[in-house]
Amino acid sequence: MSTLPTKPNTRIEILDIYRGFAVLGIFMVNIVIMHSTFINQDAYLAQFTAPVDLITQKILQLFFYTKFFPIFSLLFGLGIAIQVLKRKEEHKPITGFLTRRMFFLFLFGILHIVFIWSGDVLHLYALLGLLTMAFIRLPNKILVTLAVLLVCFPFYDFLLESLFNAIHFEPFTYLSDYDGRKINSIITTGTYLEGVQLRSLEYLTNLPMLFGFLAPVALSMFLLGLFLGKNKIIYSLDQFLLKIKKPMLLLALITNVYRVLFLEVLTNLNSYKTEIIRTLFIKLMVICDVAMGLFYLWLIGWVWYYTPWQKIVSPLKYVGRMALTNYILQSAIGVVLFSSIGFKLYETLRPIETLIIPSIVFAIQIVLSKIWLKHFKYGPLEWLWRCLTYKKLIPISN
To answer: Closest Cα partner for 14 from 302, 247, 292?
Structure first.
């Protein structure tokens, strides 16, 4: 989802590769949630004990969960920074432009929630994106410090719970009359309108996760993206990657040791049952997952600039150039696969199948995106967003 208004022949190719990679990772996670909602996911997965399914769950935990949302967020913040700086250099108005852009992104997100899937992040990005005008002026040290503090602070859940109590808002009551069986019935045999109602209730129920977990991580990565953008690091990324090689390798080693310990050892300790200890352990896991996401970016950049294997990651750029379109399309595919308007596969697949399906779908998206971009400059939703932002009809054909 780039906010960078560059012409196709001036695009920064590595950014498109990064975006494509983020879209892949997010789909691998989202398809699991689409297939079995949070309320019943643990109970559903517990029935699969075959080695291949257990290994699949470990793969998702180690390599996908909480790794790609930070990547997506960082790239979004970076795109905003590049765009704002470019408009500033060209002496073009910024505030109204960015406000329009975020407003229409917010609208896309709300429509996504209501008509397709409740797990949308676009509206959150739009809300946080409006803050960038204030943050982008901050000194580099403050930007990085705030980014670190936001992702490391462990007690958002307690603060949010206190706020909800103060305003008498009880999000968990919205699905109090729904168990896993009822949700399954609505998704697989209910009408589309019943699905719309369920998605609305799911969204309200998930507000603590949205603002207590996702929002701080997103804002942290936004700030890191702003730092990279305002210092124009993307234009000398090859040298930056070389400079941080040793720290990134060391960080990957340390964080992966903790992640394995957390999954295999720490959650089985008696002390893990203590709320404060559990909170700290989980927060450390989140920090390590975010660090792993950043390592992925470094690794892909290293492959792109310093190895002969560019062809391995190059196809990602086609999906990346149409990241918004492909992100929404993935949700629509999920509706067709799992709900009553399609194949009704909700809670019918094994974990290994939920890993294979998005891999196949993403491969098809690469092909379709490449074909589309041979004829058009932008993806369909990117084009629409662009027209609404610039308040004019922009040519789309090559």
So the answer is: 302
